[in-house]
Amino acid sequence: MPGGTDQTLRPFLWRATNLYSDTEIVSRNHDGMQRYTYSEYEGRTSQLANALDEYGIESGDRVGTFCWNHSRHFETYFAVPSIGAQLHTINPLLPDAHIQYIVDNADDELIFVDQSLASKLAGAVADADDEFDGVDFVVMGHEAADDLEATPYESFIEGHATDYDWPDVDEDQPAGMCYTSGTTGNPKGVEYTQQMLWSHTMASQTPQGIPMADDDVVMPVVPMFHVNAWGMPFTATAGGAKQVFPGPSPEPEDLATLIENEGVTISAGVPTVWLGLMEYCSEHDVDLSTLETVIVGGSAAPKSMVEWFDTQGVEVLHAWGMTEMAPIGSVSHLKSDLATADYDTQVEKRSKQGLVVPGLEFKVIDDDGEEIVWNGQEFGELWIRGPWVTTEYFERPEANEADFEDGWLKTGDVVTVDKDGYIKIVDREKDVIKSGGEWISSVELENAIMAHDGVAEAAVVGVPHERWQERPVAFVVPAEGADRETLVDEINELLADEYPKWWLPDEIEFIKEVPKTATGKFSKKDIREEYADQSLVEGQVPDEAAPDRN
Amino acid sequence: MPGGTDQTLRPFLWRATNLYSDTEIVSRNHDGMQRYTYSEYEGRTSQLANALDEYGIESGDRVGTFCWNHSRHFETYFAVPSIGAQLHTINPLLPDAHIQYIVDNADDELIFVDQSLASKLAGAVADADDEFDGVDFVVMGHEAADDLEATPYESFIEGHATDYDWPDVDEDQPAGMCYTSGTTGNPKGVEYTQQMLWSHTMASQTPQGIPMADDDVVMPVVPMFHVNAWGMPFTATAGGAKQVFPGPSPEPEDLATLIENEGVTISAGVPTVWLGLMEYCSEHDVDLSTLETVIVGGSAAPKSMVEWFDTQGVEVLHAWGMTEMAPIGSVSHLKSDLATADYDTQVEKRSKQGLVVPGLEFKVIDDDGEEIVWNGQEFGELWIRGPWVTTEYFERPEANEADFEDGWLKTGDVVTVDKDGYIKIVDREKDVIKSGGEWISSVELENAIMAHDGVAEAAVVGVPHERWQERPVAFVVPAEGADRETLVDEINELLADEYPKWWLPDEIEFIKEVPKTATGKFSKKDIREEYADQSLVEGQVPDEAAPDRN
Ligand SMILES: Nc1ncnc2c1ncn2[C@@H]1O[C@H](COP(=O)(O)OP(=O)(O)OP(=O)(O)O)[C@@H](O)[C@H]1O
Ligand SMILES: Nc1ncnc2c1ncn2[C@@H]1O[C@H](COP(=O)(O)OP(=O)(O)OP(=O)(O)O)[C@@H](O)[C@H]1O
Ligand SMILES: [Mg+2]
Ligand SMILES: [Mg+2]
């Protein structure tokens, strides 16, 4: 049969270590700054591969990590998949019950854990039934862990040969695994085959993705425990870029220092990371001159973030993705015919979730099962498919039945698409509020409310209603020093100006904090469970809580 | 089994027609300039797909083209593979016997042929035994052909629906086919699966390849009948670029006009194309200001070409490839750590065949079967493998036995690799001259000879020798007005300055013209057959025609 050799990660490592042997990998590790070259990286990765062999890891086995972003974690990124095993990155911020479920479900053999996260993991282990039976631990560094019986990483790899005769791994072999954030329900397992990771790396490298070359210095702030830090360690290796890992719980100061000292050109993270850096920069003198691109995703990037980085000469690329797609789906590059548009129009476009990257196809299905028109108004659920979009969840036959159709992933994201093809996420399907059969975007209302100075955070959820099915209620965390007396009226006015009457929340409740998921997103599931009760809107619902159809 | 959907070309078309529906495709067709949008392109491509269905083309069938670079040819590029059939591009410059062999070997059902090439094809058909039995013809345009019974293309597609329900094609399905140039022997058939073309497109789109975006205007001068014009029509579509097709037998004036009128940013072709343009520019006032990148490959780009384009503000990217790899293997981007090197060093590096693109692996094997050291000195045969490198020839079991090993393609190219990883082709294995068991690079000697003003072309080949196995003879085409009396001595002196004694040709012969292959390369096979006789060197070989081993 004609065809080329299999699509695997190994050649990316081969290329970097041969063409860029002296290029640096810099890491803020638990035991201090680590600085070595791709060539030394390859040696240590080979040592790790030999150690995994000796430990007994075989093709198809799963190896877990419970770690921040650092060089040892990066060593597992190539060693584990390239011996034919599967790297399962575990989010250490999850509640114990989720961690127990995930380790058990994935059947991990061995888990690499950070010194600073060992006691957290030990807690989950102590508390477990049989979920951790037969699982061994390696703790990242030279020292043993206090609370966990674990081999120090350096002893684990010590004495092993610095070369390894890498096998030819099949492209259909699962190489990675990650669970979704659990924003809308229990985390779901997603397996990444070698081919999926290869495809994702190549698509990231296109001009329509987030390309990296040998003159780049790449710092993923987005955690390596979540969707492979958006694949950046693989993409940077393919491009031969210098890599900078910001280590355990990086603070804005750490990021600023690394950007300045290492000359970071590309970085990536969720909006809160950049809000933190922006605040830090307003109080300190930070040199961002080397920084060219900041990728923002995971949650929506506010326009003000795009604008602030513009003033610093840094291009924000707003990206949308999902664990299910390793994760990149769209990136908000400015189209060339918008180069002459006025600045506000440009920011408007760049603040959307962007243009689908080459290799993927999508469609948007409305409530009646029809494809929407691309006019920036109509909305529906985004369906997507492609070589790096999973076509099933791990061991979840019911979810598979519901979430996939003919290779399409039903994303659960509700979007508009404008005539230029920019996708904008207006809500999650599970969060969208259905009043009288029509949709109200909870995200739109939240953003409008959060634009008020007196509001720190706001979440809008639907509460059940007999006649209209659901009605919106806003849960608001007032900003420090805000006048609670007038706030409700002001919010009501502000919304009434912008939205139809039937969109307006029937109740505004103050809360102390919006509950968050382990990846830092608003957990509306928790809000609904904790607060949302239909009694909240009793007697406050308008007579006509749906658009006038006549 | 986990994994994404298949890797096929269709989503590239889908993206371009949806995101860049108004972007233009401009073509110098036989019947005048054609200018339409991606959206109209998609309509016509769908019509063609419907017409192919009606004609009876089925999944797996082969459809040939015998055409220059133009928009109708481009319509076959997506229509044929996307209905599951296979596009076989035939080089119309091949001798009739090769054409007959190729059409028969590939078992083409239907051939699309240009108006201007119809009589050439008719000749091959008239002359054939049964090679064309059952083959039908469609002639590109509105009119019938004079010498060939053929349906006009416009009648063929007319009346068919402008949309098409594209099937899900398997990624292992052969989508394309091309025969090698026949430089070293008979052309060999290479099939491209959907996955290979997808991989090649993505690898081309990396910063290490030849990336294209929506602000680019892409003009492939390299023929679409040879290795899909280096994949550019696919890459440009994936990137949403404007495309310009230079039509039948483009002259330098045509290229200059298209560059100026259409604002071409990226173009690609073999060295002779650019020599032609350079000459034209020296005599005419041509505005190259929009041109950013010129890709040169197929044969070695002379340094002077790199330098001349630099003076025009155009970056030459020297690329190496093979029919067997769809075709891109390496591109000579300047490494970032050479950004501060002096200009001569930079040109030296950029004139090499370049750095391997991400996704491939290579090794270089010397005469003793050992891998060479990357020091720019040692040389050996280049072996390469990857997802878009074929692992077999079409129906050539003997060649397959000889040319492939464990997924590696033995390229037949003899190369050095310097410490920076730049590959330099020093010869073809079949052309390299073996004197006393040691290699002499025929290409080095030719380049040195051609540097002489009095020389138009030169080819150096080995003639058999009893004691030393082979000895070099130079075949020289003197330049117009050159002094033949002194030329031989001057060449001998020039070579003696640079090369060891045992490398020097034992004879220099004048000839009228160096025979060329159908892709315009020196055909040393023909020189050897026509001229190279061992009597040429009788009595002229030095006593020690090998390096001193002591
Ligand atoms: N740039 C963005 N703007 C807005 N939302 C985004 C953006 N990027 C990602 N998202 C949201 O994040 C989701 C993907 O997140 P992830 O895969 O981490 O898990 P989750 O969907 O939050 O959790 P779960 O699937 O378990 O409910 C997307 O479906 C989308 O809702
Ligand atoms: N930039 C370049 N510099 C020098 N040689 C090149 C370059 N690019 C390609 N080549 C030569 O062209 C070859 C590939 O050409 P192609 O596939 O068209 O057929 P061919 O090798 O000439 O013919 P055949 O394989 O039938 O003998 C390479 O193997 C190499 O020898
Ligand atoms: Mg999700
Ligand atoms: Mg060849």
From TrEMBL, chains A, B:
Ligase keyword on record: yes
CDD domains in UniProt: ttLC_FACS_AlkK_like
Record has Ligase as a keyword: yes
InterPro entries according to UniProt: AMP-bd_C (IPR025110), AMP-bd_C_sf (IPR045851), AMP-binding_CS (IPR020845), AMP-dep_synth/lig_dom (IPR000873), ANL_N_sf (IPR042099), ATP-dep_AMP-bd_enzyme (IPR050237)
Domain AMP-dependent synthetase/ligase: 18-394
Domain AMP-binding enzyme C-terminal positions: 444-521
Protein name per the record: AMP-dependent synthetase and ligase
UniProt organism field: Natrinema altunense (strain JCM 12890 / CGMCC 1.3731 / AJ2)
